[in-house]
Amino acid sequence: MLESVIDIRGLDNAERSKVQARAEAPQRWTVDEIVALFELPFADLMHQAQTVHRENFDPNGVQVSTLLSIKTGGCSEDCGYCPQAARYHTDVEKQDLMQLEEVLAAARAAKENGASRFCMGAAWRSPKQRDLEPVLKMIQEVKAMGLETCATLGMLKDGQAEQLKDAGLDYYNHNLDTAPEYYGDVITTRTYQDRLDTLDRVRNVDINVCCGGIIGMGESRPQRAGLLAQLANMERPPESVPINLLTQVEGTPMYGTDELDPFEFVRTIAAARITMPQSFVRLSAGRQSMHEGIQALCFLAGANSIFYGEKLLTTGNPEAEADKALFGKLGIHPL
Ligand code: SAM
Ligand code: DTB
Ligand code: SF4
């Protein structure tokens, strides 16, 4: 069956066993089963998600991560949602890799504000060795402050994940973004398989995987389910699953896409919770435009992580004070 899709005859032994292991991995969820979750009456879906959530997590604890864009804009890729792609004309100002001291000052402020993880993002297709070296130093020093470390630097080549691990990296974020069937409508400069290969490199050195996607890009419900199926059926599902609502930025090809119904967003969070019971599900980009009531529904649906601090990478996020107030109103404590 497999050979009819992938011709394994030209592969070396290591590649062949990787393909075979993937084919033999148990498929926990079919796309149809996940679509069926989406189609449940809202109260039934929420009940199921909340039940799974309570079986696996403290239902009132939410992990808080702060993001910093350490290298901004000028990216060679063509991700249709992204304001940092050089080819689109957006208001993002290009900024070279930040100096170590500036990054550490931001990490210190994040820690004082209550964040437990500090995520450093760079607008690279893939880091060059001369890019990676200063980032390794940032990771070491942020870790030494007592924060968990996360980085998202693009595709990794052989050997780079090992260097990140040695520097003390706890999480690597690399998203699948969407279902394989919709992927070609979103990005053409890297393949789905490129992404899976980077995720394998991260997994193989025992760095925690942070991997999710974006919804509201004009994909269909079965395609939203298709993204979740890819994540849930991984040999080990990601420890952290960011679900981003597309933040529409003027100048990007996706600007002007029909807005997603907020309940569909909540349903996506609930389906992620049910299909990945032990993963932290992060309510990621999109909170700034989201009513507090919808965010509360996302927490009820099993979201238990957020980005905290007034900026994501280049776009806005709720003020820290507003999030503290929301946590207070909902009786949520930060993890
Ligand atoms: N350049 C690296 C890469 O693409 O892997 C790391 C940074 S990239 C900005 C990290 C992730 O942010 C993307 O994979 C995408 O899922 C998310 N993202 C970027 N722009 C977004 C937007 N406008 N709305 C929602 N999520 C977005
Ligand atoms: C993720 O899934 N979402 C974050 C983080 N990983 C790096 C990024 C969201 C970016 C939103 C658009 C911006 O601020 O540039
Ligand atoms: Fe570049 Fe990452 Fe933006 Fe794609 S998502 S254009 S790779 S910064």
Structure description:
This protein is α/β, with parallel strands linked by helices and 335 residues long. Helix content is 41%, strand content 14%. The chain contains 13 helices and ten strands. The chain has helices at 2-5, 13-24, 31-38, 42-56, 100-112, 129-144, 160-167, 180-183, 192-204, 221-232, 262-275, 292-300, 320-330, and strands at 61-71, 117-122, 148-152, 171-173, 208-210, 213-215, 240-245, 280-283, 305-307, 333-334. Helix 5 links the parallel strand 1 (61-71) and strand 2. Helix 3 (31-38) packs across helix 10 (221-232) and helix 4 crosses helix 11. The radius of gyration is 19 Å and the shape is globular. It starts with a helix and ends with a strand. Residues 1-5 have low confidence and may be disordered. Bound molecules: S-adenosylmethionine (SAM), 6-(5-methyl-2-OXO-imidazolidin-4-yl)-hexanoic acid and iron/sulfur cluster.
Summarize the structure.
With 335 residues, this protein is an alpha/beta fold. The protein contains 13 helices and 10 strands.
Principal-axes shape call? globular
Could you state the oligomeric state of the chains shown?
Answer: single chain
Small molecules in complex: S-adenosylmethionine, 6-(5-methyl-2-OXO-imidazolidin-4-yl)-hexanoic acid, iron/sulfur cluster
Helix proportion range: 40-55%
In total, how many beta strands?
Answer: 10
What fraction strand? 5-15%
Distance between the termini: 45 Å
Q: Which structural category fits the helices and strands?
A: alpha/beta
Mean pLDDT: 94
Biggest β-sheet strands, sense, barrel: 10 strands, parallel
Given the structure, what is the number of helices? 13
Order of helices and strands: HHHHEHEHEHEHHEEHEHEHEHE
Q: Tell me the Rg in angstroms.
A: 19 Å
Which regions have little confidence, pLDDT < 50, spanning 5+ residues? Answer: 1-5
